[in-house]
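Milestone M4 deliverable, item 7.
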Amino acid sequence: MDPATATDTSTAPSAEDRSPRATMIVNPYSSGMTARRERQVVLLLREHLDLTVLRTERPNHAQDLTREAIDSGAEVVIACGGDGTANEVTCGLDPAAGTATERPALAVLPGGATNVLARGIGLPNDPVKAARQLAAAIVERRWSEFTIGKVDERAFLFCAGIGLDAETVKRKETQRRGRRSSDLAYLAAGVTQFVTTGGRIPAGMTIRADDGDEFRAACLFCGNLDPYTYLGKIPVHLMPAARPDNGLSVVAPETLPVSLALREASIVLSRQARRKRFNDRRHDLTDVSTLHVSCDMPMAVQADGEYLGDRSRITLRALPAALRIVG
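Output delivered:
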């Protein structure tokens, strides 16, 4: 080989020396994002990353943009928006195929109203402050493998529900226009759900667990993260044992009168220790890999706060170590 034309690989930057390649997918309609904040975030990230910015234009567009980011060789995909944006990016990463190391890592930059995942992994709820923390983590390649879930065909990062919470999401989805509704509006929708059922939600589904055990339930909450969600600044600790390095956690009350719901709410909001108060009236499962749910009539289903429709047959399953999440 002619020395004059040979490539000097000794001076080529290693993966550790060069700036990580990242694509940020921005939902410009997220309630916590403004044009000014987006500019601040982009400028901050570009100080540390080889950053491409793509902006969504329609529902589910983030999935297509994520696949575009994968094809362009992104090492990290940053979901900038609310939990729905993070969910769409996750679906675009196709977490059910291959292993976590075969796809880009996921970073979540809080730009929505609730930002459950971002706050749950310890990020500030301010997108500019979170961007600063994420930039350092990406440069240092600090990420952890997460077990996420799947409800039928839809992946979820932190929670899925059948019945009560999904019906609440459904009510707000049909009422809202434009930006996401406030947490107070969601709470009001939940109260309305109780009123329309006469103050008691009866058992309406049969759940079959991994070991073949079957039981009846009024509704089902499933997740892999604590808190399950937030009401403003208040974390809702519905399943304190949930961990992203285990299987899924499930809470399924057999019946749900309003008195029980209020007493339970006072406990999950204060994170009091678990007590044997409702053991005969609710089922608590941990480290679940698969659940099959059969509803007496179609029930609302949600994943990461997004309404998926009313369904009679639902399968929930864990996807162990499916994603590398920056944090």
